[in-house]
Amino acid sequence: MSLDLKFTYTEKKDTRSGFGDGFLEVGRNNPDVVGLCADLIGSLKMGAFQKEFPDRFFQTGIAEANMIGLAAGMTIGGKIPFAGTFANFATGRVYDQIRQSVAYSEKNIKICASHAGLTLGEDGATHQILEDVGMMKMLPNMTVINPCDYNQTKAATIAIADHHGPVYLRFGRPSWPIFTPADQKFEIGKAWKMIDGKDVTIFATGHLVWEAVVAEAMLREEGIHAEVINIHTIKPLDQEAILESVAKTGCAVSAEEHQINGGLGDSIAQTLILHHPAPLEYVGVYDQFGESGTPAQLLEKYGLNAENIVKAAKRALERK
Amino acid sequence: MEKLAIEQLQKICTQLRRDVLRMVHAVQSGHPGAPLGCAEFFVGLYFDKLRHNPDFNMDGKGEDLFFLSNGHLSAGWYSVLARSGYFPIEELRTFRKINSRLQGHPATEEGLPGIRIASGSLGQGLSVAIGAAQAKKLNGDDTLVYVLMGDGELQEGQVWEAAMYGAHYGVDNLIATVDYNGQQIDGPTEKVMDLKNLKAKWEAFGWEVNEIKNGNNLQSVLDGLEKAKSMTGKGKPVLNLLYTEMGYGVDFMVGTHKWHGSPPNDEQLANALSQLEETLGDY
Q1: What is the rounded average pLDDT of the residues A155-159?
Q2: In A, which residues are within 8 Å of B168 by CB distance?
Q3: Which runs of E-coded beta strand occur in A104-259?
Q4: Which residues of A touch B107 (CB under 8 A)?
Q5: What is the pTM of this model?
Q6: What pLDDT does B3 receive?
Q7: Is the ipTM of this complex over 0.90?
Q8: Binary contact (B118, A63; C-beta < 8 A)
């Protein structure tokens, strides 16, 4: 059985490479952009920038707290630091540094966080952070972005360089379908309605946008027309787009590679409960840590895939 | 800024101490001990050594920058900023009160001139100062970056991450200072968490260490800061070990941790102020 997908792909690539390629481009376009990395230059794909702009790149060693402070200091003098490490070390490990020196101090820093979520894979739960979006979105002044594929990550990386203020950019390790256009315009805070529907809305972010696209085709085969909205910016949340869609469909599913506590789903739930109460089903990790495995195995075991989005959509429909 | 004679600078030190005591007394909260001990440092820096611009711009290009990593010394910093023209002296009245720019610990949110980053949660300022110093190098700006830390603050691990980094990159346009008063909130540092040989520690990390043995003698502070400046530009970051006494200037406050975070009551304030001449006019 082949699905009639509204978006397709011919190539797969990791979103971190979209970041690396976008970072090189902003480096070429803006001489104030500088890079920092805590001993993960290869993993973050920051090597091309480092090679081309060695004077504007700072290897910090395995010292993330210092890296965040350095970046904060570099903004004084007009630099735009992109500080990269794994999402785990870019958030929980340095929460206080981000809170005081970055968010509260309103510094123009881009925290670039790779290997987020379960799809980090075999390294296991120590590294698979599933709480980072929650931590970052709670901070006043912080913008939180979780793009869905290589192209969107590259576009987001370029867009955040021109946005003044602290940004948390979340991306990942696995090879993933490239299903959005290379020439897309990335508007921070503006949700992207990828597929029109009338029965249920699927709000997805990050890798799970692809799973939502697949789920839409599966639902359509059963005569259910789902609307798919790509929430690449979790904060500020495009409440208008969310409310407009749910006003039409009357129920929703959120899908994210994150704990259900504190993630995108909670932000949508808050929006709905305040403005337009409607059934919402969560696809996310239910208050557990991850484990070692391949990305595909983990997404299946923890229910972060198209099949589970389909089930959640049906549950939401039944609650209408 | 026109340079002042040492007698005049001494008067500003006295006034700063009065300001600090009156500020923490007025809200019955805050940290008087350490800023009393750092009066000579604050005044020597702001009225003699810093090439700075009280008109203030956040980027600080072409001027020396100062960061207060041990943000609880805010009362002293606010006093020296106001007295050197960053904002109206009258505004010291608002310290730690609702709707004030003079937050309990320094903050940028309300745009208080002179403050470039929030501090208070300890251990972060050295990293920030090093980053700012590196930005200066990238900008071809040959001015300096200063940062003050507490000695107790050195118990925070991030400080040593920054120490390692500063030496690795040869950040030699930076002068860090440790307020070496041997006291922290819970008691003497040697009892709470012994810092052992700080000079050897910093040297082992690759820093040039400059000891300022009498941090409450204005002339020795001025000389020490001048010496520190002469040590910059030579491939290594510079660290001043500034030996001070917490609570200096008030006989019943000096040399103890007991006034680290406690305000004086009415009677204690009167007693303390009687030991400090009002030189420039109280706010």
Answers
A1: 98
A2: 61
A3: 110-114, 143-145, 167-170, 175-177, 192-195, 200-204, 226-230, 233-235, 252-259
A4: 104-105
A5: 0.97
A6: 86
A7: yes
A8: no
